[in-house]
Design goal:
Strand content: under 5%
Order of helices and strands: HHH
Structural class: mainly alpha
Number of domains: 1
Number of helices: 3
Shape: rod-shaped
Largest sheet: none
Distance between the termini: 42 Å
Radius of gyration: 25 Å
Length: 108
């Protein structure tokens, strides 16, 4: 299943490759300047990719911290240890879900 929220590139990579190959092959001023003109676009795309990577790493770290807090809450016998995960997941995927009451005691 394809992720519908995945960001798409904002750069025509094939055009950049073509400009670069043309500049290497013909070495004319126009071909060279066309390839050089792609540099700011490449830098902007690199900056965007790094920003997305930082966001993904931060989100992953937050989810991992919530998972660890949930495990610690289970060890501490908190009444609703999944609160930490629910709160963090809600940041990324807000849904209206009623709290789940789990009968851990098996009806005792």
């Amino acid at each position: 299943m394809k992720n519908q929220q995945a960001p798409l590139p904002t750069l025509d990579q094939e055009a950049v490759r073509t400009h670069f190959r043309t500049a290497l092959r013909y070495r004319t001023p126009i071909a060279m300047w066309t390839a050089i003109a792609d540099i700011p676009v490449l830098l902007a795309e690199l900056d965007r990719a790094l920003t997305l990577l930082t966001r993904a790493r931060t989100d992953t770290a937050n989810l991992l911290a919530a998972a660890r807090a949930t495990l610690a809450a289970i060890d501490d016998s908190e009444s609703d240890p999944l609160t930490y995960l629910r709160d963090e997941v809600a940041v990324h995927w807000p849904v209206d879900v009623a709290p789940v009451v789990d009968d851990v005691g098996g009806g005792q």
